[in-house]
Each structure stands twice: as structure tokens, then as C-alpha cells.
Amino acid sequence: MTDMANPGRKDFVNTEAVAPTTLKPAFELCVRKVHGNIQRLADEPKAAPWALDGNYFVHPEGFFEIGNWTSSFFTGMALLAWRATGDEYYLQQTLRLAPAYREKAGARFLDMHHDAGFLYSLYSIALYKLTGDQEHRETGLRAAEALAQRFNEKGNFIRAWGRIDESISPIGPVGLRTDNMAIIDGLMNLPLLYWAANETGRQKYFDIAVRHADMVLKHFIRPDYSVAHAIRFDLDTGLPSAVDNYCGFSKDSYWARGASWAIYGFALSYGYTRDRKYRDASVRLAKEFLAQLDEEVVPVWDFRLPPEMPKVRDASAAAVTVCGLQALAKHQAADKELVVAKNRLLERICRADYLDTNLNCPGVLKSAYGDKPAYSSWGDYFLMEALAGELGMGEPFW
Ligand code: GLY
Prior knowledge:
Layout: H1 20-43, E1 50-51, H2 71-85, H3 88-95, H4 98-105, H5 116-131, H6 134-148, E2 151-152, E3 157-158, E4 181-183, H7 190-200, H8 203-219, E5 230-233, E6 240-244, H9 256-273, H10 276-291, H11 315-330, H12 336-349, E7 366-369, E8 372-376, H13 377-390
Antiparallel strand pairs: 1-8, 2-3, 4-5, 5-6, 7-8
The structure holds glycine.
């Protein structure tokens, strides 16, 4: 069936759930690959966030480097593997990293971006939820406090990058100012604050999360439900001063993975707050995202590329979106179109052209890093989370 208003776009016709014969081998592949990956990470806490050939251990980024936001995609996969298999190996390897996580959230908390949410939701919070061990609760709470300290009261935003005692980032482009900037990815860090609010009863954490989420609704989401990557603020007035971009094609473009962070991020905020405006935003963002897809199903990495640019696909954006659609379905907010799209996206990235079944390759999903075809640790993680969700293996850790 073809949409006559958009003849290049085939409507989704598959309303069936993805077959277990597709889901189970893909999940098993993730389990088998993280077996080696988690041990390598625990032996030496270094791994590249992405790799052209899927080998995350060739040009590794240290866990304590300020820009590291991806180590926990390996630990998150290991804990999904432990929960599914009961094999203590995965837990024991993950626990070897506990001192490093404790140190990063403690003495070294200044050397962490807003990605405390990505890092600690898939480590300390996941471990606490699975084991009940208070040590992980304490570390998670320290990470939440570190994240809360990045909140800018006037602008209602959590500062994305850089140490909070410096205004210029020591990494990335020389002289890049970071004290006045929030990015769309930050929505995925809010569950750490909601969790801390629930654990401690401290309203402060809840309020910061809600104020940041409301700011994103107001300033990042465009009237057509595309999203901006970054917004800068005037620190004197707290008002937005400029749109900026470091991940999409341009300031005005429509970065697919940024939209995915927003779809899932708002669905998660709805889960913690039950505020319908987050649920509705997630649904509208998802529908606009789906309207951009063509017969390949997997999104182009940016939906507003100039025609001469190669249409590199970002399977990680597909995986994150599937997780967001699963969250909407759990909250009875996914209509038939969204459920069908969830199944279609997941089924598509489980096919041989996206899934790497070579067990010698650490990477699982041939996804994308910006405009480069690559493997990414986050793509692998969200694929495995999506598969676990579809197979009924329990709640996500966020
Ligand atoms: N959070 C960084 C990215 O999605 O590339």
C-alpha cells in the first residue's frame, strides 16, 4: 500500500508481533557478545562508544574521561543477560566495575557531563533494582546529586557538557563554551532524578527533572515536531539565545537519533510524572518520526540532508524509538499505527544486513555514528533492551 501524498513511502502493513524465531536468536546474539565485552571492560574500564568495524576495544575511551557516556551500555547489556539467563558470570563481571562507578560519582563527580543519567541508570540503579544492595543505591544517589548540581535555576536547564567549575570545555572544539547549553539527549538522564526523588523523598530532584522536561518542550520541539539538538541560553536572563548543533547535519536539520531520545525520554518522564503533556509529546514526536521513514524502514541519520548527501541509516535511532514505543504501549498510549511501527522497526533491524552474527566482532548492530556507518554501543544496548521488552523479560532499568 502506497501513501499517495508521499509516493516514496510505503505504509506499514505488518500488524503482527515480531516472531519469536526472530527475537530469540537476536537476544541470544547480544547475550553471547556481551559475555566477552563485559569482561574486557571490567579488566580495563575503557571502550570506544562506536567503531567502524565493530571492535570497541581498539581505540578505547577511558571510563574516567569526562566525555564518556557509553560504558554503561555494556553493563546494561550484561545485566539484561544476567536477568535472562541467571548466569552469575554476568553479574560478577559487572560488579568488578563498582569501585570505578563509586569513584566517578564521588571524588571525581566534577569530571562528568550530564550523562550521569545514562551511566548510572544502567549501572547502579539497575544493580540496586536487581539485587537490592544498598551500596548501589548510595552510588546512584551520589550520581543524582552530581546531575542536580548541573541545573541552571534561571534557564531551567541541566547543563549538558563540561565541568561545572569551568565555562569552556576542555574537550571537543577548542574554546567551545559549554556553561550555557542543553542538548536533547539530556531527556534520557532525567529518570536518574525521578528515581532519586522517589528513593529519598527529596522534591528537589523531581522539580529539576520536570523543569528541564518543560524547558525541552518549550524550546527544543519545533511546531512541526522535529527537534533541535542544542539550545544556548543567556545566563543573565535565562532566556534561550541561540539554536546550536553538534550531532545533526545542521542547526535547522532533523537529527533522527535526537528525535528518538525525545520520543523515549518524554515517554519515560510520563511514566514517572503521569503528566499527559509528556505522553502527548512523545506520541506526536513518534508520529512525525514515522512519517519520515521510507521503504528501508530504518531512518536516515538526519531527515533533512541535502539531496547530494549519502543516506546513511541510523539503526540505533530505530532501536531507541522501539524502546520509546514500547513505553508508550505500556502506558496504553500507542495506537495501532505506533504498535505496527514498533514491530516493523524491530523486525527490520534484526535482519542480516543490520545484525552482525560474527561472534569475533564485539559489535552487534550495524548502526551509525553521525554520518558514518558504524557500530555503536548504544545501538547494541537499545536493541537488546527492545528485544528483552518484546520477549516479556521484565521492565527496563530507567
Ligand atoms: N548522546 C550522544 C549521541 O546520541 O550521539
